[in-house]
Amino acid sequence: MEEQYGIQGAYVILSISFGIYLTMRPLTTYLLRRRLLELGQWSHEAHRQMKEENQSPRESLKWGLILFFTGIGFIVVHFLDVTFDSSLAYGVIMVSAAIGFLLYYLLVSSRPNAN
Question: Which residue spans traverse the membrane (predicted)?
Fold first, then answer.
């Protein structure tokens, strides 16, 4: 039965995880703003800063690098000729995604803030 799902199972899990992220992010942003309003800490400066954070080009860079390196991980798994029953395949994909995160961190930490 497990052989029937293969990589499609990974796609389903990834899609569900992404959907949960897309649902939770606006909710947590709303809760943060509401809490700041309740505490009297909300100002035009805080509003501007949160708006800039959402429109940051670095956010696109981060997700682009992560998806790029995850794709490279899938390609490496394909050429290693291992099945997804083995944990090696998932390890390669996770390590390649982690390399994307680390590269993003190195790029962002080496540049001074543009603001």
Answer: 6-24, 60-80, 86-107
- Contacting residues for 17 by C-beta, under 8 A, at least 6 apart: none
Q: Are residues 62 and 51 in the same domain?
A: no
Place of tokens 């897309």: 22
In this predicted model, what pLDDT tens digit does every residue of 25-84 receive, in sequence order?
878 878 887 887 788 877 777 777 777 666 667 777 888 888 899 989 988 988 888 887
Return d(Cα 104, Cα 61) in angstroms, integer. 7
* One domain for residues 63 and 113: yes
Long-range contacts of the stretch 52-59 (C-beta < 8 A, 24+)? 52/115, 58/108
95 or 86: whose pLDDT is higher?
A: 95
Two structure tokens written together for 28: 């947590």
> Which of the listed residues 55, 76, 97 is the one where a domain comes to its end?
55
Residues 33 and 86 in one domain: no
CB 69 within 8 A of CB 95: no
Q: Which domain holds residue 76?
A: 56-115
Name the pTM for this structure.
Answer: 0.55
